[in-house]
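INFO batch 0412 | record 1 of 1 | parsing
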Amino acid sequence: MKIVVVLSHEMKQGGKLENESKARADLAIKTFFDNNCDFILTLGWDYRQDSNIPIAHAFSSYIKDKRVSAEKIISDINSRDTVGDAIFSKIILMREYNPKKIYVVSSDYHIQRVEIIFRSIYQDQFDLEFLSCHIDKDKNHETKELKSLNAFKKTFEDIDFSNNEILLKRLSSQHPFYNGDIFPKI
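INFO prediction complete | emitting tokens
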């Protein structure tokens, strides 16, 4: 079994994907068809105060409109960032699918951090391939990516990545997107 995991970015109020999100979704769709994949997994929560559509569902709608059948799309609305994307996708894939190959799709400026986080969290449980679409970004994104990567390393520095319960406990207790510091506690 082969699965494409597409990392969400941003959407507009009505659930319309922003250009970077469309580029990621388009690459996921191309990867799905080119590699004869079984499913596309979309991720992301209802992050907009002015909308009640989780971004995972906005991605799903966009992908369905591009001729991928609904039965081939899996959506999870628990993740709020890249770390959550890796943890929640790992749990879903281990529990329900056990794929042989996983294609992880993001943007080029973000893919190095994505690879470090996913390889750390997934360990060697799956065959991972990382794909990225080109996005023009300024130099500030490099600083933000490095800061986020360092925060990940600090938060998860002494953890057993093979234990999903421990991963979730650490996420909900120490990560500010999940522990109540910035967004509601999970």
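INFO post-check: Residues 19-34 form the longest helix (16 residues).
INFO record closed
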